Amino acid sequence: MHTFLQDLRYAARQLWKSPGFTIAAVLTLTIGIGANTAIYSSMDAVVLHPLAVPQLDHVVTLGEQKDHGDDGLAMLPSVALANYADWKQQSRSFEDLAVRTSVDMSLTGAGDAAHVRTTLASANFFTVMRTQAVVGRVFGESECQPGRDSVAVLNYGFWERRFAGDIAVLGRKIELNQHEYTVVGVLPKTMQYPSDVDIFLPFAPTPQQWANRSGRDYQVTGRLREGVSVKGAQAEMRIFSVWPMPILPPTWGARSKWNRFWWASTDPIRRSITGWSWVLHFLCCWWCAPMWLTCNLHAASHGGRRLPCARLSAQVAAASFASC
Questions:
Q1: Rounded to whole angstroms, how far apart are CA atoms 101 and 49?
Q2: What are phi and psi of 209, to 5 degrees?
Q3: Quick one: which of 257, 269, 274 has its CA closest to 62?
Q4: Per-residue model confidence as pLDDT tens digits over 99-148
Q5: Of 102, 158, 166, 262, which is the most buried if we count CB atoms within 10 A?
Q6: Does residue 201 share a domain with residue 300?
Q7: What is the domain range of residue 124?
Q8: Whole-prediction pTM value?
Q9: Do residues 289 and 165 both lie within one domain?
Protein backbone atom coordinates (compact mmCIF):
# COMPACT_ATOMS: atom_id res chain seq x y z
CA MET A 1 0.00 0.00 0.00
CA HIS A 2 2.86 2.34 0.85
CA THR A 3 4.46 1.71 -2.54
CA PHE A 4 1.16 2.34 -4.28
CA LEU A 5 0.77 5.71 -2.51
CA GLN A 6 4.30 6.65 -3.49
CA ASP A 7 3.48 5.81 -7.12
CA LEU A 8 0.38 7.98 -6.98
CA ARG A 9 2.28 10.96 -5.55
CA TYR A 10 5.03 10.59 -8.11
CA ALA A 11 2.51 10.27 -10.97
CA ALA A 12 0.68 13.38 -9.75
CA ARG A 13 3.92 15.39 -9.68
CA GLN A 14 4.86 14.30 -13.20
CA LEU A 15 1.44 15.10 -14.57
CA TRP A 16 1.57 18.53 -12.90
CA LYS A 17 4.86 19.21 -14.66
CA SER A 18 3.32 18.34 -18.07
CA PRO A 19 0.01 20.26 -18.21
CA GLY A 20 -0.35 19.91 -21.99
CA PHE A 21 0.01 16.15 -21.87
CA THR A 22 -2.27 15.94 -18.81
CA ILE A 23 -5.04 17.89 -20.54
CA ALA A 24 -4.75 15.72 -23.67
CA ALA A 25 -4.87 12.53 -21.60
CA VAL A 26 -7.87 13.67 -19.55
CA LEU A 27 -9.79 14.76 -22.66
CA THR A 28 -9.02 11.47 -24.41
CA LEU A 29 -10.32 9.40 -21.51
CA THR A 30 -13.30 11.72 -20.93
CA ILE A 31 -14.46 11.53 -24.54
CA GLY A 32 -13.93 7.77 -24.71
CA ILE A 33 -15.73 7.01 -21.45
CA GLY A 34 -18.52 9.51 -22.17
CA ALA A 35 -19.19 8.14 -25.64
CA ASN A 36 -19.15 4.56 -24.32
CA THR A 37 -21.65 5.46 -21.62
CA ALA A 38 -24.02 7.08 -24.12
CA ILE A 39 -23.89 4.18 -26.57
CA TYR A 40 -24.22 1.53 -23.86
CA SER A 41 -27.29 3.35 -22.55
CA SER A 42 -28.89 3.45 -26.00
CA MET A 43 -28.26 -0.27 -26.51
CA ASP A 44 -29.29 -1.31 -23.00
CA ALA A 45 -32.78 -2.46 -23.94
CA VAL A 46 -31.62 -4.50 -26.92
CA VAL A 47 -28.25 -5.91 -25.85
CA LEU A 48 -28.07 -5.97 -22.06
CA HIS A 49 -31.79 -6.58 -21.59
CA PRO A 50 -32.81 -8.63 -24.64
CA LEU A 51 -36.31 -9.17 -25.92
CA ALA A 52 -38.62 -10.32 -23.15
CA VAL A 53 -40.16 -12.95 -25.42
CA PRO A 54 -40.97 -16.34 -23.86
CA GLN A 55 -39.33 -19.24 -25.72
CA LEU A 56 -37.57 -16.94 -28.15
CA ASP A 57 -36.04 -19.94 -29.91
CA HIS A 58 -39.59 -20.86 -31.02
CA VAL A 59 -40.00 -17.54 -32.88
CA VAL A 60 -38.98 -17.70 -36.54
CA THR A 61 -39.27 -15.63 -39.67
CA LEU A 62 -40.40 -16.97 -43.03
CA GLY A 63 -39.37 -15.86 -46.47
CA GLU A 64 -39.12 -16.86 -50.11
CA GLN A 65 -36.30 -17.99 -52.36
CA LYS A 66 -36.11 -17.27 -56.04
CA ASP A 67 -34.70 -19.88 -58.39
CA HIS A 68 -32.02 -18.32 -60.60
CA GLY A 69 -31.27 -21.59 -62.39
CA ASP A 70 -27.54 -22.10 -62.74
CA ASP A 71 -26.91 -19.10 -60.45
CA GLY A 72 -28.61 -20.83 -57.55
CA LEU A 73 -31.21 -19.41 -55.15
CA ALA A 74 -31.73 -15.86 -53.93
CA MET A 75 -33.13 -15.70 -50.39
CA LEU A 76 -35.47 -12.82 -49.55
CA PRO A 77 -37.00 -12.00 -46.15
CA SER A 78 -40.17 -10.60 -47.77
CA VAL A 79 -43.14 -12.56 -49.06
CA ALA A 80 -46.28 -12.12 -51.12
CA LEU A 81 -49.39 -11.57 -49.02
CA ALA A 82 -51.35 -14.30 -50.78
CA ASN A 83 -48.58 -16.81 -50.03
CA TYR A 84 -48.69 -15.84 -46.36
CA ALA A 85 -52.45 -16.46 -46.29
CA ASP A 86 -51.95 -19.95 -47.73
CA TRP A 87 -49.09 -20.77 -45.37
CA LYS A 88 -51.21 -19.72 -42.40
CA GLN A 89 -54.07 -21.95 -43.57
CA GLN A 90 -52.06 -25.00 -44.60
CA SER A 91 -49.08 -25.17 -42.24
CA ARG A 92 -49.12 -27.46 -39.19
CA SER A 93 -45.65 -26.57 -37.86
CA PHE A 94 -46.64 -23.22 -36.39
CA GLU A 95 -48.94 -22.19 -33.57
CA ASP A 96 -49.58 -19.00 -35.49
CA LEU A 97 -48.16 -16.85 -38.28
CA ALA A 98 -48.25 -13.04 -38.20
CA VAL A 99 -47.62 -10.59 -41.02
CA ARG A 100 -46.39 -7.00 -41.01
CA THR A 101 -45.00 -4.32 -43.31
CA SER A 102 -43.13 -1.11 -42.47
CA VAL A 103 -44.08 2.34 -43.75
CA ASP A 104 -42.54 5.77 -43.19
CA MET A 105 -45.19 8.33 -42.28
CA SER A 106 -45.50 11.99 -41.36
CA LEU A 107 -46.68 12.61 -37.79
CA THR A 108 -48.72 15.70 -36.92
CA GLY A 109 -51.02 16.61 -34.05
CA ALA A 110 -48.40 15.77 -31.41
CA GLY A 111 -46.04 18.72 -31.22
CA ASP A 112 -43.76 19.50 -34.13
CA ALA A 113 -44.32 17.54 -37.33
CA ALA A 114 -41.91 14.62 -37.76
CA HIS A 115 -41.21 11.58 -39.91
CA VAL A 116 -41.80 8.32 -38.03
CA ARG A 117 -41.34 4.65 -38.78
CA THR A 118 -44.57 2.68 -38.51
CA THR A 119 -45.36 -1.00 -38.83
CA LEU A 120 -48.70 -2.25 -40.07
CA ALA A 121 -49.10 -5.55 -38.22
CA SER A 122 -51.72 -8.24 -37.91
CA ALA A 123 -53.22 -8.43 -34.42
CA ASN A 124 -51.70 -11.86 -33.80
CA PHE A 125 -48.20 -10.36 -34.09
CA PHE A 126 -48.41 -9.58 -30.37
CA THR A 127 -49.62 -13.12 -29.69
CA VAL A 128 -46.71 -14.61 -31.60
CA MET A 129 -44.27 -12.40 -29.68
CA ARG A 130 -46.09 -13.13 -26.41
CA THR A 131 -46.25 -9.45 -25.49
CA GLN A 132 -48.89 -7.12 -24.11
CA ALA A 133 -49.04 -3.37 -23.59
CA VAL A 134 -47.39 -1.96 -20.48
CA VAL A 135 -49.83 0.94 -20.68
CA GLY A 136 -53.29 0.53 -22.19
CA ARG A 137 -53.77 -2.34 -24.66
CA VAL A 138 -52.75 -3.66 -28.06
CA PHE A 139 -55.19 -3.73 -30.96
CA GLY A 140 -57.35 -6.77 -31.69
CA GLU A 141 -58.58 -8.70 -34.72
CA SER A 142 -61.72 -6.57 -34.99
CA GLU A 143 -59.53 -3.51 -35.55
CA CYS A 144 -57.61 -5.13 -38.40
CA GLN A 145 -60.46 -4.45 -40.79
CA PRO A 146 -60.68 -1.70 -43.42
CA GLY A 147 -62.41 1.32 -41.91
CA ARG A 148 -61.87 0.13 -38.31
CA ASP A 149 -58.11 0.42 -38.14
CA SER A 150 -57.72 3.94 -36.69
CA VAL A 151 -55.86 2.96 -33.51
CA ALA A 152 -52.15 3.10 -32.68
CA VAL A 153 -49.77 1.40 -30.24
CA LEU A 154 -46.55 3.23 -29.38
CA ASN A 155 -43.05 1.86 -29.00
CA TYR A 156 -41.77 2.51 -25.46
CA GLY A 157 -38.76 4.57 -26.56
CA PHE A 158 -40.89 6.69 -28.89
CA TRP A 159 -43.42 7.22 -26.09
CA GLU A 160 -40.69 8.53 -23.80
CA ARG A 161 -39.05 10.70 -26.46
CA ARG A 162 -42.20 12.21 -27.96
CA PHE A 163 -44.61 12.24 -25.02
CA ALA A 164 -42.19 12.24 -22.04
CA GLY A 165 -43.68 8.96 -20.81
CA ASP A 166 -47.03 10.63 -20.08
CA ILE A 167 -49.79 8.07 -19.39
CA ALA A 168 -52.32 10.68 -20.49
CA VAL A 169 -51.33 9.87 -24.06
CA LEU A 170 -53.96 7.10 -24.00
CA GLY A 171 -56.96 8.25 -25.99
CA ARG A 172 -55.01 11.07 -27.61
CA LYS A 173 -55.53 11.74 -31.31
CA ILE A 174 -52.53 11.84 -33.62
CA GLU A 175 -52.35 12.24 -37.39
CA LEU A 176 -50.25 10.01 -39.61
CA ASN A 177 -50.21 10.96 -43.28
CA GLN A 178 -53.27 13.16 -42.57
CA HIS A 179 -55.23 10.20 -41.19
CA GLU A 180 -56.37 10.36 -37.57
CA TYR A 181 -55.47 7.58 -35.11
CA THR A 182 -56.25 7.11 -31.44
CA VAL A 183 -53.42 5.97 -29.17
CA VAL A 184 -54.61 2.89 -27.25
CA GLY A 185 -51.41 1.48 -25.77
CA VAL A 186 -47.66 1.48 -25.21
CA LEU A 187 -45.47 -1.60 -25.58
CA PRO A 188 -42.96 -2.67 -22.89
CA LYS A 189 -39.41 -1.31 -22.94
CA THR A 190 -38.06 -4.77 -23.69
CA MET A 191 -40.20 -5.16 -26.81
CA GLN A 192 -37.65 -3.90 -29.35
CA TYR A 193 -38.64 -5.89 -32.42
CA PRO A 194 -38.55 -4.56 -35.05
CA SER A 195 -35.85 -2.33 -33.58
CA ASP A 196 -36.54 0.73 -35.78
CA VAL A 197 -40.32 1.01 -35.30
CA ASP A 198 -41.93 3.97 -33.53
CA ILE A 199 -45.62 3.14 -33.92
CA PHE A 200 -47.61 -0.06 -34.56
CA LEU A 201 -50.81 0.21 -36.59
CA PRO A 202 -53.41 -2.45 -37.49
CA PHE A 203 -52.83 -4.13 -40.82
CA ALA A 204 -56.16 -4.09 -42.66
CA PRO A 205 -55.62 -5.39 -46.22
CA THR A 206 -58.29 -5.22 -48.88
CA PRO A 207 -59.43 -8.34 -50.79
CA GLN A 208 -57.28 -7.21 -53.72
CA GLN A 209 -54.20 -7.12 -51.47
CA TRP A 210 -54.96 -10.59 -50.10
CA ALA A 211 -54.99 -11.96 -53.64
CA ASN A 212 -51.68 -10.34 -54.64
CA ARG A 213 -48.78 -12.72 -55.33
CA SER A 214 -46.46 -10.30 -57.08
CA GLY A 215 -45.79 -7.67 -54.42
CA ARG A 216 -43.30 -9.00 -51.88
CA ASP A 217 -43.50 -6.23 -49.31
CA TYR A 218 -44.40 -8.23 -46.22
CA GLN A 219 -42.51 -9.91 -43.39
CA VAL A 220 -43.85 -13.04 -41.73
CA THR A 221 -43.11 -14.04 -38.15
CA GLY A 222 -44.24 -17.35 -36.69
CA ARG A 223 -44.12 -19.33 -33.47
CA LEU A 224 -43.26 -23.01 -33.72
CA ARG A 225 -45.52 -25.57 -32.11
CA GLU A 226 -44.11 -27.48 -29.14
CA GLY A 227 -41.93 -30.32 -30.37
CA VAL A 228 -41.40 -28.82 -33.84
CA SER A 229 -37.84 -27.80 -34.75
CA VAL A 230 -36.75 -25.19 -37.25
CA LYS A 231 -35.55 -28.01 -39.52
CA GLY A 232 -38.99 -29.60 -39.28
CA ALA A 233 -40.64 -26.33 -40.27
CA GLN A 234 -38.23 -25.94 -43.16
CA ALA A 235 -39.06 -29.45 -44.33
CA GLU A 236 -42.77 -28.65 -44.33
CA MET A 237 -42.17 -25.50 -46.34
CA ARG A 238 -40.18 -27.53 -48.85
CA ILE A 239 -43.07 -29.93 -49.18
CA PHE A 240 -45.37 -27.01 -49.98
CA SER A 241 -43.00 -25.88 -52.72
CA VAL A 242 -42.96 -29.25 -54.52
CA TRP A 243 -46.61 -30.24 -54.11
CA PRO A 244 -48.20 -31.47 -57.38
CA MET A 245 -50.44 -28.84 -58.86
CA PRO A 246 -53.74 -30.71 -58.22
CA ILE A 247 -52.94 -30.82 -54.48
CA LEU A 248 -52.21 -27.10 -54.20
CA PRO A 249 -55.07 -24.85 -53.05
CA PRO A 250 -56.83 -23.29 -56.05
CA THR A 251 -55.71 -19.81 -55.04
CA TRP A 252 -52.05 -20.72 -55.53
CA GLY A 253 -52.38 -20.66 -59.30
CA ALA A 254 -49.47 -21.57 -61.55
CA ARG A 255 -46.21 -21.85 -59.68
CA SER A 256 -43.62 -19.37 -60.82
CA LYS A 257 -39.95 -19.36 -59.95
CA TRP A 258 -40.87 -17.23 -56.96
CA ASN A 259 -43.33 -19.77 -55.56
CA ARG A 260 -41.10 -22.83 -55.80
CA PHE A 261 -38.96 -22.39 -52.69
CA TRP A 262 -39.74 -21.26 -49.16
CA TRP A 263 -37.74 -21.31 -45.96
CA ALA A 264 -37.98 -20.77 -42.20
CA SER A 265 -35.15 -19.32 -40.17
CA THR A 266 -34.50 -17.98 -36.65
CA ASP A 267 -31.58 -15.79 -37.71
CA PRO A 268 -33.36 -12.42 -38.12
CA ILE A 269 -34.90 -12.64 -34.62
CA ARG A 270 -31.61 -13.57 -32.99
CA ARG A 271 -29.75 -10.80 -34.80
CA SER A 272 -32.01 -8.26 -33.12
CA ILE A 273 -30.40 -9.32 -29.84
CA THR A 274 -26.94 -10.62 -30.66
CA GLY A 275 -26.17 -8.71 -33.84
CA TRP A 276 -24.69 -5.86 -31.79
CA SER A 277 -22.02 -8.04 -30.15
CA TRP A 278 -19.39 -6.71 -32.55
CA VAL A 279 -20.27 -3.20 -31.38
CA LEU A 280 -19.49 -4.17 -27.82
CA HIS A 281 -16.07 -5.43 -28.89
CA PHE A 282 -15.50 -2.20 -30.80
CA LEU A 283 -16.44 -0.13 -27.76
CA CYS A 284 -14.05 -2.15 -25.63
CA CYS A 285 -11.23 -1.45 -28.09
CA TRP A 286 -12.29 2.20 -28.37
CA TRP A 287 -11.81 2.70 -24.64
CA CYS A 288 -8.68 0.57 -24.30
CA ALA A 289 -6.80 1.99 -27.29
CA PRO A 290 -6.72 5.62 -26.04
CA MET A 291 -5.80 4.37 -22.59
CA TRP A 292 -2.92 2.32 -23.99
CA LEU A 293 -1.81 5.19 -26.24
CA THR A 294 -1.95 7.67 -23.37
CA CYS A 295 0.28 5.51 -21.20
CA ASN A 296 2.83 5.05 -23.96
CA LEU A 297 2.86 8.77 -24.78
CA HIS A 298 3.47 9.48 -21.13
CA ALA A 299 6.36 7.04 -21.14
CA ALA A 300 7.78 8.68 -24.26
CA SER A 301 7.57 12.08 -22.60
CA HIS A 302 9.86 10.75 -19.87
CA GLY A 303 12.54 9.36 -22.11
CA GLY A 304 10.95 5.92 -22.38
CA ARG A 305 10.71 5.48 -18.60
CA ARG A 306 7.25 4.32 -17.54
CA LEU A 307 5.81 5.21 -14.20
CA PRO A 308 4.67 2.17 -12.17
CA CYS A 309 1.02 3.15 -12.41
CA ALA A 310 1.33 3.96 -16.10
CA ARG A 311 3.03 0.65 -16.75
CA LEU A 312 0.26 -1.27 -14.99
CA SER A 313 -2.46 0.71 -16.80
CA ALA A 314 -0.79 0.09 -20.14
CA GLN A 315 -0.58 -3.63 -19.44
CA VAL A 316 -4.27 -3.77 -18.48
CA ALA A 317 -5.27 -1.77 -21.55
CA ALA A 318 -3.13 -3.90 -23.86
CA ALA A 319 -4.60 -7.13 -22.46
CA SER A 320 -8.15 -5.79 -22.81
CA PHE A 321 -7.42 -4.58 -26.35
CA ALA A 322 -6.12 -8.03 -27.30
CA SER A 323 -9.23 -9.70 -25.86
CA CYS A 324 -11.40 -7.60 -28.18
A1: 26
A2: -65, -40
A3: 269
A4: 999 999 999 877 788 999 999 999 999 999 999 999 999 999 999 999 99
A5: 262
A6: no
A7: 56-272
A8: 0.68
A9: no
